[in-house]
Each structure stands twice: as structure tokens, then as C-alpha cells.
Design a protein that fits this description.
single chain, about 300 residues, alpha/beta, Rossmann fold, 8 helices, globular
């Protein structure tokens, strides 16, 4: 992987793993920070740290959980489906030998989020890393969007992130350290947001704005806030579609492309924070969605 300066504070990163993917990183433009950020050999020791990953049983969440465990990080995975959750936890324990736990959690429910925090502190004694990843999709022209989806999107994709951060943040402030990494959306980098995604994307725009503001509030407490803005990834939200062409499938990114950005954020030295990392499908024309809305959609 190498870095190409694009403009002040913005860096394009080309991946040697997959030339179809292009990354962009935004960091605050303080003197010397960007030089330190990309210095080789500065990777922090992650072994023994503790992480929560929401949506951790499948797709991006599972891929992130496995990579963290591979680096010696203890993990608590949160997801709604118990069967897949238990299977992923078992795989991690067997393969990586770290402490791994699963807790069935609906991130749209405040009580579930509180249980997740309490459970993690009880089992691991501390929280060093939060990966906010859980989400739902609803892709329709607005006049056809089910009215119940509006609340579901708000409570899962926006409040699910904000409320969990609020429940954890004072613990991190007391410890004067922490890393909060959030899956936002590549749809927020275009204006106006993509058609048939306006409710989903507008909530992600609000989440992105909140996280930028949170960075400035938390930086003096030693807490890092990073937003990852991925394009369309080959996950549970796309692999159950009734009809998808090989051309469309080829345009989907692997979850590993997102994992690279998570590890990039966690590997930055203490005095640098990748504020935003954008991972976009190289073959995606914004004038036409990768997936047409008239599909059976994963919920």
C-alpha cells in the first residue's frame, strides 16, 4: 500500500491487494502529523486490547473481528442472530486463542446497548476499541419507501452508533485513551446523495457530521474517532438479492478492503488520527446504482 498526496489533509491510497479499489484518507492538517502517520514501523502493539464489534457475526463485522483477533485483541461481538454469532465466536476462539464472547444485541434498542457495555466490562474489564458496524438497508424511491423503514434506519444506523458511543465514552475518558471506528457510507461523498438511497444516505450524512464534531471534542482526552466511508461491499446486504448480474457482482468490494482501513486506523501513532477513510468501488458510476432498488432486500 502506498500514499499519494491529493490536497491538504487528503490522501489517496492505492491497494496492492486489489487494484479495483481506491482509498482516500482525511486527517487534520497539523504540521508534521501526516508525515508521522505514514511512517513505517510505527504500528502500535494491539495485543491484549479489548474491542466491541457490532454486527460482528457476518460480513464486514466478522472480517474485522477475525483480523483484530489475529492481532491478539480480545473481542465481544454483538449481533441479532444467535446462531451465526455463536459460530463466529467459536471460530475465533479456536483459530486465534484470544478471549471472544458473543451477545445477542439489537443496536436499535437502548437497553440492549447498555447490556452490551456492561457485559464487556464484566468479561474483559475494559474497552479500548469500539467498531460501530451494525446497520440495515432500505433502498427505494422515497414515495415507495415503507414508512416503518424510516424509524428502523434512524434507530439502527444513526442512534445505534451515537447512543453506544455515549454509553462508552466516559469509560474511555477516564482511561485517557480509546479508538472508535465507525462504518458510515461512501454515499455521503456525493452531493446530492444517490437516488433511491436518500433516507439511508441523509442519516449517514448526519452521522458523518456528528463524528467529525466528536473528534474535536475527544482529541484532548486521547480518544481517536475515525469514520470509514465504504462503497458497496459484498456482504449479507447484497448476497441475498433475487437477481444480480456478473457485471454487478464484479463491482462489489470484498470486506477485506474495509478491514485494511480499520487496521490502518488502529496502526496510526498516538499523536495522529485518520479522521475519515473512504473506500470506493473503482468501477462504480454514480449515475447508476450498483444494485437496482427493485430487488428483494436484506433487512
Amino acid at each position: 500500500m502506498y500514499v499519494i498526496p491529493a490536497k491538504a489533509g487528503i490522501y489517496g491510497v492505492s491497494s496492492s491487494r486489489d487494484p479495483k479499489i481506491i482509498y482516500y484518507c482525511e486527517v487534520p492538517s497539523f504540521a508534521g502529523m501526516t508525515r508521522l502517520l505514514f511512517t513505517k514501523g510505527s504500528i502500535m502493539d494491539l495485543k491484549g486490547k479489548n474491542a466491541i464489534i457490532t454486527g460482528g457475526s457476518r460480513g464486514i463485522g466478522k472480517a474485522v473481528a477475525c483480523k483484530l483477533a489475529e492481532n491478539g485483541i480480545n473481542v465481544v461481538l454483538a449481533a441479532r442472530g444467535k446462531e451465526a454469532l455463536d459460530q463466529t465466536v467459536s471460530e475465533i476462539k479456536e483459530k486465534y486463542g484470544v478471549q471472544a464472547f458473543g451477545l445477542t444485541t439489537d443496536v436499535s434498542e437502548l437497553a440492549d446497548l447498555q447490556k452490551l457495555v456492561d457485559f464487556t466490562l464484566e468479561q474483559l474489564g475494559g474497552i479500548d476499541i469500539l467498531i460501530n458496524n451494525a446497520g440495515v438497508s432500505s433502498q427505494y424511491p422515497f414515495e415507495k419507501q415503507p414508512i416503518e423503514d424510516l424509524e428502523k434506519l434512524c434507530f439502527t444506523n444513526y442512534l445505534g452508533y451515537v447512543r453506544l458511543i455515549r454509553l462508552i465514552i466516559n469509560h474511555m475518558i477516564e482511561r485517557k485513551s480509546g479508538s472508535i471506528i465507525n462504518m458510515v457510507s461512501g454515499s455521503t461523498v456525493v452531493d446530492p446523495v444517490p437516488r433511491t438511497f436518500i433516507t439511508y444516505s441523509s442519516l449517514k450524512v448526519g452521522l458523518r457530521a456528528f463524528l467529525k464534531g466528536l473528534f474535536w471534542e475527544m482529541r484532548d482526552h486521547g480518544i481517536k474517532i475515525t469514520s470509514i466511508l465504504p462503497g458497496v461491499v459484498d456482504t449479507d446486504l447484497t448476497d441475498k438479492l433475487d437477481s444480480i448480474t456478473s457485471e454487478q457482482k464484479d463491482r462489489l468490494m470484498s470486506p477485506d478492503s474495509v478491514v485494511d482501513m480499520v487496521m490502518f486506523a488502529l496502526s496510526a501513532p498516538a499523536n495522529a488520527c485518520p479522521l475519515e477513510l473512504t473506500v470506493i468501488n473503482q468501477k462504480t458510476p454514480w449515475t447508476k446504482p450498483i444494485i437496482d432498488y427493485a430487488q428483494k432486500q436484506a433487512k
